Structures are given as structure tokens and as C-alpha cells.
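Subject: design request, 312 residues
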């Protein structure tokens, strides 16, 4: 890699958590830290994606629904990349559901579908989403719903990390901390008086909290089928799958890796509650199309398609 690419990677690593997730530093912060301009930053980020060092980049955006009016980009780094020349620090586990069609829609898409149906006033529509949430999200662009899906996944990661065993045993969980974190990320509706705005926001937060629990329970149930794997509290983080994958496949990054798990494991559900596994000693052994679908890698930009770029 060039010196500039190494510098950008170093800055991302400095802001990453132990799973390789980088949050809270946007393009302005990266440009300030690296001295790169906008075009150079975008190009060099695509280089890191093409080399497999950055698995995914979820762009930040501005919207009235978020506290502060915007959210920063999120970057998912591959800490097992061979360029680091160190013993693996994480492992990835993928679950593929047998009923793929039933899992094709995620919660962000459901929110968007219900908002669009409400806006078109289609007669007889049955919405899964409460009216307060629909009003809160009315008029938002598609990128906002994608950002909300990623936000919900990050909260589901926290819930799974804190309460893996409780979620599997039906134990009552105090979700006060979760509601506080969700509320802190959102802005009160401005179209209402203060008291009504508080009520509307509380309904939105409560619904998002329910969605996070749905996600966490679904992930816990599906990965719990691998009952020979010893999951530890705090050892996992959700890695978003590719756009349009819904929950057909779900992916976890594990740190530290359980001794029963190689660097890359895919669980294929043969019938309800029964899974078979496919094992790879490194992610590079998995077919590229599968890595793209599972969120382990991202497609090349058009600009780089004309260059000879090799995945790790």
C-alpha cells in the first residue's frame, strides 16, 4: 500500500473497537487527521475496500430524525487481513436460513414500506408500524431507513453482548439502558408542542426498542442452533449483510474467537433447529460472491473495476 493508504488505515484502526467497527469519525475528521481532500479520501477508501481491509462502509447522512441532524459514517474493518501478519484476532460466523424467501425483508425496509403505504393512503393497509413512528419518518429518503437499520443492528449487538444467556433462557431483561441509548440518537419531532413531542418520541423509542429485541432474539435463536459453540458475554458484534439480503443470512464477528470456531464458519440450516457447518481456515478460501453476500466484503467501485485490484 502507498503511504497515504497506510495513513488512512492507521487512523481507522485507531478509532476502531475490538471488533473492527469504526463509529463517530466522519469524512471531515478523516480529512483533518490524514490531510487528504474529499476526492482522494473517497478513492483511497475504495482502495482499502478493494484490498479487503475495509469490509463495509455505511455512509453518514443528514436528516431531521437524528440528534444533531446527522450521523457519521460507520466502517467495518477486517482485523484478520493477512497484511497485519499477526495471529487471528477475530472469527466470523454466518447463519443461512433454510426458508430464504421468508427472511428477505429487514426492519428498515419494513419501516420504509409502511411509511410509503401510509403516504399513498392505500385503502385497507395493515401496518406493522405504529402511527407515531410513521409520522416521525414521513418524507424521509431511502438512505435514512438504511441508516436506521444499521443503528438497530448496532443496538442489537449491544443487547446480544450483554444478555446472550438471558435471551436464550426467557429471562426478563431491564431495557432502560437501551431506551436511553435509542432516545439519545433521535430528535424530538418539531411539528408538535413540547409535551406532545415528548409523547411521540417515547412511542418511537419504544417501537425501536421492540425491533431491537426482535433482532436480538432472532439472532440468538439461529446461532443458538450451534450448541457446540461456547459464546461468551461481550464476545460478539453483528456485521451487516449486503444490501437486499434482509435476514436471509446473518453474520457475527467474534472476539476473542471461541476455540470451537475457525476463522470463518457458515451454518446452513437443513431443517428447523438442525444446521450443518462449512469451515474455512481463512476468509480468503470462501468464494468471493459468498463473501459479498454475507457482508464480509464489498463490491468494487466502477473506477477500480478498470484497475488490477486483487482481493486478499
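Subject: RE: design request

Done. Sequence follows.
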Amino acid at each position: 500500500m502507498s503511504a497515504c493508504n497506510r495513513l488512512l488505515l492507521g487512523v481507522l484502526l485507531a478509532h476502531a473497537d475490538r471488533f473492527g467497527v469504526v463509529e463517530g469519525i466522519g469524512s471531515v475528521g478523516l480529512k483533518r487527521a490524514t490531510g487528504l481532500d474529499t476526492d482522494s479520501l473517497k478513492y483511497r477508501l475504495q482502495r482499502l475496500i478493494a484490498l479487503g481491509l475495509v469490509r463495509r462502509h455505511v455512509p453518514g447522512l443528514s436528516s431531521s430524525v437524528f440528534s444533531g441532524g446527522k450521523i457519521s459514517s460507520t466502517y467495518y474493518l477486517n482485523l484478520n487481513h493477512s497484511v497485519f501478519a499477526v495471529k487471528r484476532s477475530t472469527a466470523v460466523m454466518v447463519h443461512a436460513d433454510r426458508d430464504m424467501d421468508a427472511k428477505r425483508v429487514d426492519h428498515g425496509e419494513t419501516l420504509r414500506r409502511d411509511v410509503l403505504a401510509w403516504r399513498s393512503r392505500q385503502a385497507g393497509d395493515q401496518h406493522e408500524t405504529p402511527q407515531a413512528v410513521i409520522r416521525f419518518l414521513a418524507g424521509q429518503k431511502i438512505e435514512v431507513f438504511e441508516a436506521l437499520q444499521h443503528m438497530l443492528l448496532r443496538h442489537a449487538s449491544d443487547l446480544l453482548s450483554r444478555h446472550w444467556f438471558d435471551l436464550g433462557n426467557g429471562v426478563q431483561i431491564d431495557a432502560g439502558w437501551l431506551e436511553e441509548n435509542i432516545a439519545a440518537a433521535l430528535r424530538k419531532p418539531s411539528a408538535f408542542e413540547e409535551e406532545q413531542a415528548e409523547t411521540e418520541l417515547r412511542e418511537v423509542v419504544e417501537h425501536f426498542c421492540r425491533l431491537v429485541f426482535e433482532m436480538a432474539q432472532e439472532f440468538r435463536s439461529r446461532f443458538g442452533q450451534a450448541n457446540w459453540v461456547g459464546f461468551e458475554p461481550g464476545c460478539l458484534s453483528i456485521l451487516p449483510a449486503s444490501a437486499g439480503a434482509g435476514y436471509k443470512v446473518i453474520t457475527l464477528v467474534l472476539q476473542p474467537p471461541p476455540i470451537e470456531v475457525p476463522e470463518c464458519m457458515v451454518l446452513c440450516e437443513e431443517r428447523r433447529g438442525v444446521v450443518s457447518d462449512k469451515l474455512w481456515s481463512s476468509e480468503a478460501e470462501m468464494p468471493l460472491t459468498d463473501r459479498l453476500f454475507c457482508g464480509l466484503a464489498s463490491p468494487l467501485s466502477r473506477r477500480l473495476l478498470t484497475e488490477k485490484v486483487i482481493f486478499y
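The radius of gyration is 20 Å.
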